[in-house]
């Protein structure tokens, strides 16, 4: 890793500090870097002494009470929305998310139709199964009916299960999209 | 050395390093190295705190084609050292007591 890469990674970890603070930190490390190079240290030795960017950032923040508190309060702070921003979000949400919502509802209705078909197929399968038990006297016919009915029950269950999971994940995805949209600032 | 104790000492150590003449980051670390270990990442917020509390004043000057920030102690910084010396005197008495000195020495 070069010093420039190290500095870039350090500043990325300090992104919650103000630009002025980050510029000050960058200038500070560049100065010490230059002094140590003049003193005969190698780039490797200097970076070893600086520690990893993560360690350096953690030390700076933990020693700097003010900076650390800023970072902690920024991380804990919930986004505040003004009324105007909220209204904009609602309008934007309606314009952007309504078509998405309509599409999602259509998909869920389609899945519902599939589920109803599945139930119907399963029910038909059960009826055939019962009927086939009376037809076992004509063995091949009865067995064919039995097999068909079991297959129909299986297909019906699969269709219903597919509907269940598809609807579930569609609903979860929609909820997460809405949550992320309204949390965005 | 205990971490909390070390933290309390570092600010005064940094002020002592610049008491006689203005200094800069790398030199401060080098001057303190025989007495107390201080990393670049630890020194930075200490210098910032000292600057914002008025204990040091700063200026930037060019050195070998690059910028160097210098730190000079102020009367507030001198007073901090003095306050620390007085606190240490009191601490020495308590330390003597803990180690078996007489109570009336306090």
Key traits:
heterodimer; A: 185 residues; 86% helix; B: alpha+beta; 4 helices; 57% helix
Describe this structure in words.
The complex is a heterodimer of chains A (185) and B (106). Chain A is mostly helical and 185 residues long. Helices cover 86% and strands 0% of the residues of chain A. Chain A is built from 7 helices and no strands. Chain A starts with a helix and ends with a helix. Chain B has 4 helices and 3 strands; from the N terminus they run H-E-H-H-E-E-H. In chain B, a hairpin with a 2-residue loop joins strand 2 (56-63) and strand 3. Chain B is elongated, with a radius of gyration of 16 Å. Chain B starts with a helix and ends in an 8-residue tail after the last helix. The model of chain B has no long low-confidence stretch (mean pLDDT 88). The interface between A and B is medium-sized, with 26 and 21 residues.
Number of helices of chain B: 4
- Name the beta content range of chain B: 15-25%
How far is the first residue's CA from the last residue's CA of chain B?
25 Å
What would you call the shape of chain B?
Answer: elongated
Order of secondary-structure elements of chain B? HEHHEEH
* Chains forming the largest contact: A-B, 26 and 21 residues
- pLDDT < 50 runs, ≥5 residues of chain A: 74-78
User: What's the multimeric state?
Assistant: heterodimer
Structural class of chain B: alpha+beta
Assign an overall shape of chain A. elongated
């Amino acid at each position: 890793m070069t010093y420039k890469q190290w500095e870039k990674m350090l500043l990325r970890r300090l992104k919650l500090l103000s630009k002025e603070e980050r510029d000050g930190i960058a200038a500070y490390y560049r100065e010490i870097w230059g002094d140590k190079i003049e003193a005969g240290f190698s780039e490797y030795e200097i970076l070893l002494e600086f520690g990893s960017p993560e360690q350096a950032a953690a030390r700076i923040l933990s020693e700097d009470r003010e900076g650390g508190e800023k970072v902690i309060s920024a991380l804990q702070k919930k986004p505040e929305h003004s009324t105007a921003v909220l209204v904009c979000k609602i309008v934007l949400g309606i314009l952007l998310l309504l078509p998405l919502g309509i599409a999602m509802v259509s998909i869920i209705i389609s899945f519902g139709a599939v589920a109803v078909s599945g139930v119907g197929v399963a029910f038909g399968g059960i009826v055939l199964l019962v009927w086939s038990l009376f037809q076992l006297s004509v063995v091949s016919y009865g067995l064919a009916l039995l097999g068909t009915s079991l297959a129909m029950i299986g297909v019906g269950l699969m269709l219903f299960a597919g509907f269940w999971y598809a609807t579930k994940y569609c609903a979860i995805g929609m909820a997460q999209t809405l949550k992320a949209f309204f949390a965005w600032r | 050395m205990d971490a909390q104790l070390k933290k309390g000492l570092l600010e005064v150590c940094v002020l002592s390093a610049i008491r006689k003449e203005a200094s800069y980051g790398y030199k401060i670390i080098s001057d303190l190295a025989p007495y107390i270990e201080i990393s670049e990442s630890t020194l930075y917020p200490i210098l910032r705190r000292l600057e914002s509390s008025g204990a040091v004043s700063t200026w930037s000057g060019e050195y070998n084609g690059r910028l160097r920030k210098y730190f000079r102690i102020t009367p507030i910084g001198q007073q901090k050292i003095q306050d620390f010396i007085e606190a240490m005197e009191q601490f020495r008495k308590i330390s003597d007591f803990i180690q078996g000195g007489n109570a009336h020495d306090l």
